[in-house]
Amino acid sequence: MTSKLKTKIPVGYFHFHDDVGLNFQFNRALVNQCPMDEMMEAAQNIKTYADVKDIMTVLAEKALAEGRVLNASFYCRFAEFFCFGDSAEKKRLFDQFIQLFYKALEADMIERHKIEYPGGFLKAIRVKPDRSKTGTVVVHGGGDSFVEEFYLSVRGLIDEGFEVIMFEGPGQGEPLQKYNIKMTHEWEKPTKAVLDYFGLDNVTLVGISLGGYFALRAAAFEKRIRRVIAWDVVYDFFECVMGRNGMLKYYIINALVSINAKPIINCIARRQMRGKEMEKWIYDQMMYTFGAETPFDYLKTLKRYRCTKDISSRVSQDVLLLAGADDHIIPVRMYDRQFKALVNARSVEGRIFTKEDHASNHCQVGNIGLTLNYIIDWINRKSSE
């Protein structure tokens, strides 16, 4: 039998590139075991987002030729993430990422499942611990994420005796790419499908990134979830997106969306896309993920993604909230607002990670190991109460 691939989660958030978004993706790749020196050199050659696909594809080919299958896999994911306008190439890179990922981690005995869902199938993976099971943890991402890109981050749960089930819902991974199932704010629906399929009860649900909103939303309606972890806290996703660079823009855009000023919003968005590469990438990617035809439609849809007082008051489980003090995507102010809104939760605990923790960035990239240990300790304590 092939032995499990040994991995070590790094500590530290490093400067690969001046572009904040690109720099974050390089640090994520570091978590997924891509070599720092190799990525540092590649980063210096990236001048625009359009450069990323070709540069990372070359790295993938080099890694594969050298037998570094896991590295090749995540270089393909990196290239796919920044693949614009060529759906055939994006699909090719996606398929190659998946193929190489499971080849590299074959010894982990990862079960792969397809769950019937309106419009196609949801994807799930399950890994059982080698020793007696101490509980089941269900994990999902946010945005347009894939379960595979979080697997190494939560692999330590399996070592601690937990059965881990990870799934992709609407707007994510295979449901989006294979069946064109678009994102939904009603995350209780895909979560129910997963719990029904595996016959689960008394589970811990972990939502990563925008999944922090999804997980709390699901827990509000699905009481087979006994413990819920928002890894990070997304109280109001519209505000996260529009308030990134100051609240004045948020208030203006919010007012324009509220009065259905579609031509004005679309004009503003297209002007932003012409001037800033990151803005264009965000709009293009998110419009595809959310099934929106115009920037206005996308922004109007975003207003549904809020853990309002009505939703938060329905959450009756044990809750753990996690946030980063320097998160470039989710403002840290979301943490206190979400904490205060959970008025009927059985218990609410949380932590804002800092630079001293090396975990102050989005989803604590920089010190995932510290965060995972914190999560494990909380689950064990709450499960025994």
Automatic annotation (TrEMBL):
Segments forming domain AB hydrolase-1: 137-339
Keywords in alphabetical order: Hydrolase
Protein name per the record: Alpha/beta fold hydrolase
Superkingdom as given in the UniProt entry: Bacteria
Recorded family membership: Belongs to the AB hydrolase superfamily. FUS2 hydrolase family.
Pfam families per the UniProt record, alphabetical: Abhydrolase_6
GO molecular function, one term: hydrolase activity
Gene3D superfamilies with a match to the protein in the record: alpha/beta hydrolase
